[in-house]
Amino acid sequence: MELKFYHIYIIYTLALGIMVLAVVPRPEIRRLSFLGIIYGAITDFWIIIFATHLLGVGGYKNYYPFAFMGIPFFPLLAWTFYFILYLFFLPQRKPWIIIYTIVAAGYSTIFSNILQNLGIFQWNVGRLFIPYLLYLTWFSIVTFTYYKYFKNKEFY
User: Fold this and answer.
1) CB atoms inside a 10 Å sphere around CB 118
2) 6 confidence band (pLDDT: 50, 70, 90)
3) For residue 4, which phi and psi values (nearest 5 degrees)?
4) Domain count of the fold of the chain
5) Band (156; pLDDT cuts 50, 70, 90)
């Protein structure tokens, strides 16, 4: 079987899902899943609408059968898994929280460039500065709102 571009979405989504199951305890998965959906899938959905469809900053491509109305399915699920991991490993003390957020934004910038090299993502405004600002803003908002509103809450 020949590997198609759109199979990459399945592979990295499964890899993230397996990492969540392997590393995060089940009670924490239950606790963080709701936030993973909000911070990951729902936020990425709106980023796709605004950044991709309205502003043309960049977006997913070559997702063929795995999308509806130009919204690919697997990246939304992958971002949900990503934010379960992100929140699970989020440090407790302030200098580490800031470093963690900055490094996570850098990682996501690098990963999005790898996806661009693989032909399933496209940045239209440069590959470093604007993407990094987008991820840093996204992750900073997630980190701030998580600590302010959700840190000790149960959602199940």
Assistant:
1) 12
2) confident
3) -95, 160
4) 1
5) low
Residues 82/83/87/88 CA torsion (nearest 10 deg) = -40
Residue 4 pLDDT greater than 70, yes or no = yes
Range of the domain at 130: 7-150
Q: How far apart are CA 79 and CA 119, in angstroms?
A: 19
| Token couple for 137 | 């803003």
Domain-embedded: residue 155? no
DSSP 57-70: -EEE---TTSEETT
CA–CA dist 51, 63 (Å, integer) = 17
Cα separations in angstroms, 120 against 138, 142, 155: 21, 25, 34
142 vs 148: CA distance, rounded Å: 10
Could you tell me the two tokens for 102? 């900055």
141 touches 84 (CB < 8 A): no
Identify the pLDDT of residue 71.
Answer: 87
